[in-house]
Amino acid sequence: MSTQPTKIIAIIGGGFSGAALAWHLLQKPHAPLKVLVFEPRPTLGSGVAYSATDPNHRINVPASRMSIDTAHPLDFLEWLEKTGKSQHDPDARQPDGHLYPARKVFGQYVAARLAPLLEAQHLRHIPSVVTAARKTPKGKWGLTTQAGDIFEADIVVIATSHPSPRPPTELAALERTLSAATHPVLVTDPWKPDAFRTIKPADRVLIIGTGLSMADTVATLIARKHKAPLLAISRRGQRSKSHSRTPTTAIGDFLSPPASLTKTLLQKVRAAIAAHPDIPWQAFLDRVREQAPEIWSALNHTERQRLIRHLRPFWDTHRFRISPPTENFVDAAINSGQLRIQAARLIKVEIKGKHFSITLQHRNGHVERLKVEAIITTTGPAHNSILNSQPVLKSLAADGHIEMDSSGLGLHVTTDGHAQVGPNKDSSLFIAGPLARGRFGELMGLPEVTAYAEKLARTISTQADRSVLEDAASLS
Domain FAD-dependent urate hydroxylase HpyO/Asp monooxygenase CreE-like FAD/NAD(P)-binding: where (predicted)? Predict the structure, then answer.
């Protein structure tokens, strides 16, 4: 009696997006599946976001809203209580009872959920980087790793992370001339281990960017007993907003009908908030977040570009909220006068001995010159360099399998997650996680990434089932 052939699914990238997809694929598969996850880190599920070792880098939403499974939204919270992790970090629990544990703890939770699948050998972790992915003569995929090994797969899923932040033009040339062991110090990737090792407590620091990464940077420096002044700048000088001090539930409707103009959308949101002054604004923004895919799909290319150019900075600061423990670090530094946050841009920087001589232009036109011993960039991902950010993406782009979405936020994908180039989709190549953001508008928060992983898992499982039936029919 013949057995059904096993379909091999290769997931490139083992951060949360890839780990969640693997977990959902293997819950109750119909067709026999073997899932390979290519991830150079020693464990699956952490990625850039949840591999941070600093205990002051915390999740930005309560643990009760984070889970690998939308059908069990309290899974992470229950795991924290069951394992006792919630008792080891008293600063995580807030007066309202919500928990904001360290990010690395969430990574440990995801790894724990994957452990049984690894032990049963349904899931295989390959700790290597994929350098190329090409179609074989048989129509399958051949994946080449950095070690020179070649793996074959029926379906490939790109679940890699965002490209690293790109330093401002004024700093790019200096980066190549500085030694990591000497002063002044330039940190262009604050997420690297020991990124701040050579920054001394007495070093004056310029931080470029004022969002969540800036807040994490300040928390780390303060926890390291940093004493010197900190200056954080961005074009608008906006900080990430706080969570509501009172419990909120998403409210409002921004789809009846959906706005076709960015201006109209903004007016609808403002009107809803103004009409209910007794309800925290976070409740309305949470509803916008829920309805974001439909809101985004109603906008044409011109309006999407207008939204990205004019509203995205405001959306990001209201949507990606700071955790209360991290906010306490930032507020204390501001109140003590150690931290200043200003609307300005860097227009000139020079190395003068062991310090930088920098020139800033403030939003009001005022020019300021000052000296600092360290510069840290905390700007967002370099979306426009996605195709060149990793060898495998270069390989796929060169062979015509992937392209950028017209929004510039991610890769071009279909509504069901297939990679798309022009009008054509590749039925055996999928894009998972935030790299699919261009199609859906909002795909950065963990709840959205989880829901999208579940959707992809259903699509891939259905496709695998159909493929098995077709293979069986061809053999009969």
Answer: 10-162
